[in-house]
Input
Amino acid sequence: MKWEHALFILIGVLIAINVVTFIYYWNQVNALTLERDALKQQVDDLNSLVNTLQSRVSSLSSERDALMQENEDLNTQITMLQNQIENLQTQVAHLQEQMNILAGERDSLMRQVNMLQNQVDYLQGLVDNLWGQIDYLQGQLDYYESIVNLELSRVLADNEVIVIPGDSYHVLSYTTEYAGYLIIEFTATNGISIHVGSNFTGEYYYTYPSNGTASSGTFYVPVFPGTTYIFLDNRGLFTPGVTVTITITYVY
Output
């Protein structure tokens, strides 16, 4: 009966090998499919079957002498066990296939996540850019509202001293980007007249004082977009030279 003993050992080894292989792949599948309750139940059933087989192998070992009298039944049981082994091998192969499918799905989902994250980053960049544009445009709007409300000002000349020879004149020119007005303050060693003009109108449209000359004064005069000219007039026969100190503030 040595061959039967060897056969039992071979069957036990085959069963043990297949059981170990099954458990290995089962653990792999279980690690990848924690949320697959149905698969877990199937694995639990397989573990129960493996435990049953192990119990039968132990029983076969302890009842070895009795099984010698029941050779035909043993052969039947061997055939059944071989069928179970083949079934386990089939299930192991199926689990391996499922594991490969799940790994592929996982990789596909990770690629989708990366793609969506890239889209999120791109859209977030667009949002940040749009917020930057909004802030810039709001600043521009506030700036132009200040201009419309004449809330901005710039000093064009600050106590600038100008010496004008007798019977002569001096012209100051400034860029005035927007419509607004000038505040002109001046003192002069002799009386002069001041004319204000613009390339927008093509002429001098304001004179201070309206008649004669003045040696000091403060006046307001509207200006147009473009270049504004301030004509300091000291012309006249026998008119002496004059020193003018002038401050000009542009309000827009």
User: Anything to note?
Assistant: The chain has four helices and seven strands. The two ends are 117 Å apart (CA to CA). The mean pLDDT is 84.
